[in-house]
Amino acid sequence: MTTPNKVITHVSKDYIITTEPVDSFNEEWKGGLGCLWFNLLQRNKDKIIIINGDTEECETRGSLLSKSIRVASIMQKHGIQKGDVVRFALNFHQNAYAALAGSLFIGAIPIFIEPYHNSDEAAHLLRAVKPKLVISTKDGGKFDVLSKAKESITSDVKLITLEDCEEFKQPQEAEAKFVPVPAKHIGETAAIFFSSGSTGLPKGICIPHSFLLPIDELKLLDGVKTPVIMSFDSLYWATDVYKFISALKNEGILVIAPTLDPIKLWLRIEKYMVNMISCCPYHATLLVDAGKPKDLDTSSLKSLHILGGVLPSHYREDL
User: Fold this and answer.
1) Whole domain around residue 204: which residue ranges?
2) Are 206 and 192 in contact (CB under 8 A)?
3) Per-residue tens of pLDDT for the chain, all 319 residues
4) Can you say how many angstroms the Cα of residue 253 is from the centroid of all Cα atoms in its chain?
5) Close Cβ partners of 172 (under 8 Å, ≥ 6 residues apart)
6) Where is the AMP-dependent synthetase/ligase domain (predicted)?
7) 155 and 66: one domain?
8) Are residues 174 and 228 in the same domain?
9) DSSP string, 175-239
10) CA 131 vs CA 110, 124, 195: distances in Å
11) What is the CATH number of the domain that holds 146?
12) Total domain count for the chain?
C-alpha cells in the first residue's frame, strides 16, 4: 500500500493497522476521494443531502460544498498541506461532514474523536496518531477536554475552534476559485479511523482512497429515485462515512440522529420516508425495546443492516 511518509512519521507503530487497496479502478476516481466528492457536490446544488433529525435543518449539496471549501481554506491558513493529519472533535452535526470533505479537498488526512470521549481517551488518540492541527467546537465541553488531553502529551499540536473562525460563518469570495488537491495514487491513505477498543486500546486504521471509492450501500435499493438513509453514528466510525458516500453518489439524503431517542427515531422513518437503516446492535435494541408506535407507516424502509456485533435472537425476531 502506498502511504504518505508524513503519516508514517506521525503514527505510533503500536497503535496502527494498514489496509490493502482494492485492484478495481474507475476513471472518475482519478484524483482520489477529495476530487470525486468535489465534483459530485457540484451537481444539483439545490438538492438536499443531509437532514438533521434533531433540529430539522436541511443541508443542500451546494451549501455543504461551500462549507467544505471554507473548512479547507481554514486548514490551509493554519499551514495544513497534503498528507498532514488533522483531528476533529465536533458534534454529530452536518458541519462535521463539511470538515470531513474539506480535509479531503486539500489532501489532509482526517480523524474524528467520538463526542463522548473523556480527556484520557482523547489523549490516547492524540498520542497514537499525532495530528498537526485539532479543530474542535466549544459545545459540550469538547474544547476543555482536548485542552486537558493536549497538556498530557509531548506535542506542539495546534488547537482551534470553528466558532472562532469568522471565515467559516459566511461564504467567501475565494470559494469560486477553489481547486481540490488530487491524490497522486489512490493507494494513498485517505483517512484514519480507530477501532472500538474492545480487545485493548483503540488502534488507528489507515484507509486508502481505493477502499472508500467503491463504497455504495444504496445500490441495493433498486428503483428508489431519491434514497434516504438514516445514521445514528458519529464520524468516529467508518460506517457513518460509508453512509455519507452512498448518499453523495446516489443523490440521496442522509438523515442524522444526534440524539438517540428511540421513539423519535421511529417517527423519523415515517416522516422522512427512510429507505435504509444501518446501525449497531445496541441501536437496534433501543428501537425494539421502545416499540413501534401504533399505526406508524414504515413501508418505505427496504433495508435494515445490523453491524458490528451479534443481535440476540429474540431481538431479531421482534425486528
Assistant:
1) 5-18+33-46+61-211
2) yes
3) 344 433 333 344 444 444 444 444 567 788 999 999 999 999 999 999 999 999 999 999 999 999 999 999 999 999 999 999 998 888 888 999 999 999 999 999 999 987 667 777 777 777 788 888 888 877 655 666 666 666 666 567 788 888 778 778 777 778 889 999 999 988 999 999 988 766 677 888 899 998 898 888 887 777 788 999 999 888 888 888 999 999 999 999 999 998 889 999 999 999 999 999 988 888 899 999 999 999 999 999 999 888 878 888 888 877 7
4) 15
5) 69, 70, 73
6) 42-315
7) yes
8) no
9) GGG--PPPPS-TTSEEEEEE---TTSS--EEEEEHHHHTT--GGGGSTT-SS-EEEE---TTSHH
10) 9, 12, 18
11) 3.40.50.980
12) 2
151 contact partners, CB below 8 Å, separation of at least 6 = none
Q: Which amino acid is at 220?
A: L
Pair 192, 281 in one domain: no
Whether pTM exceeds 0.90:
no
Q: Are 54 and 257 in contact (CB under 8 A)?
A: yes
Q: How many angstroms separate the CA atoms of 303 and 297, rounded?
A: 15
134 with 174, same domain? yes
C-alpha cell at 304: 435494515
User: Which among 32, 28, 35 is positioned nearest to 68, based on CA atoms?
Assistant: 35
CB 50 within 8 A of CB 248: no
CA-wise closest residue to 205 among 217, 215, 190, 216: 190
